[in-house]
Amino acid sequence: MSTDPQRTEQQAHADGMVVRREVLSDAHVDRAEATKDEFTAEFQDFITRYAWGEIWTRPGLDRRMRSAITLTALIAAGHWEEFEMHVRAALRNGLEREEIKEILLQSAIYLSVPSANNAFKHAKQVLDALDAA
Q1: Please, what are the domains in the chain?
Q2: What DSSP character marks residue 133?
Q3: Which residue numbers delimit the Carboxymuconolactone decarboxylase-like domain (predicted)?
Q4: d(Cα 17, Cα 26) in Å, to the nearest integer?
């Protein structure tokens, strides 16, 4: 989708909103949209157009691979709230729990054992919450 140079910003936003809802869930996006205000509206538009409408719509990688990359990047940067959100997204994108565990083990070698330890803690909280629901 995003490789078409004729796409408008509106098209990128519309495509991005579809992908964002499919990956993160309608409930998550609805919450984000409901809290949008004059201060945050431009940022919400920016991430919808660029992250979701330009990158996540590219044909070069499937969503499972994009989820694996995203989890690793979020571990590396220590963005734990976003990491938890993307653990849920990874499951929605078809990654199995065992595959998520393997991503976390891989991150222990290439990022750090403390980073992976924290990732396991956060992922387990998400998985336990999903199991309880």
Answers
A1: 9-55 (no CATH), 63-132 (1.20.1290.10)
A2: -
A3: 42-124
A4: 10
Question: In whole angstroms, what is the distance from residue 70 CA to residue 19 CA?
Answer: 15
**What letters, b where the CB count within 10 A reaches 16 and e where it falls short, cover 106-121?**
ebbeebeeebbebbbe
Q: What is the dihedral of CA 43, 46, 50, 52, to 10 degrees?
A: 70
Average of per-residue pLDDT values in the chain: 95
Alpha-carbon distance of 78 to 71, in angstroms, equals: 10
**Residue 3 pLDDT > 90, yes or no?**
no
| Secondary structure letter of residue 81 according to DSSP | H
